[in-house]
Design goal:
α4 packs across α6 and α5 runs antiparallel to α6. The chain is flat. It starts with 10 loop residues before the first helix and ends with a helix. The protein has six helices and no strands. Helices cover about 80% and strands about 0% of the residues.
């Protein structure tokens, strides 16, 4: 027997559900909802997102890109920027976080920085 589709909830129904959850839900329910919403709304960039275009480049383009990545990897501004972002994210996560949102945002900063750094290193090699 075919499965019947549930009608999609309206924005008003979703808003009422979230408001009710905020007032009456447990911390665990709020955390699960928050992570689900973040996962749906913020599709992060991964290393795999970069892979295909580099393979499609010519040898000379690839060598040029590799040379640029090597320069970036050794650039003092890049090193300072990475270090500064790491310190800011760590401070926000461990010292200044007032709620789970602050921690999640700091983790997103760290993750983005890590993806960028790994991509530069991978291309440089």
């Amino acid at each position: 027997m075919p499965r019947l589709r549930q009608p999609r909830p309206t924005r008003k129904e979703i808003g009422e559900y979230v408001e009710n959850l905020a007032k009456n839900g447990t911390q665990e329910q709020k955390r699960v909802l928050l992570h689900g919403v973040l996962k749906h709304l913020f599709k992060s960039v991964t290393l795999e997102d970069f892979g295909t275009p580099i393979k499609q480049l010519s040898d000379s383009q690839r060598r040029s890109l590799q040379a640029d990545a090597e320069m970036i990897e050794k650039n003092r501004f890049w090193l300072w920027l990475k270090d500064t972002m790491l310190k800011i994210a760590s401070k926000r996560m461990f010292e200044e976080a007032r709620n789970e949102d602050d921690i999640i945002f700091a983790k997103a900063m760290l993750y983005t920085l890590d993806v960028m750094d790994k991509k530069v290193k991978n291309v440089a090699r």
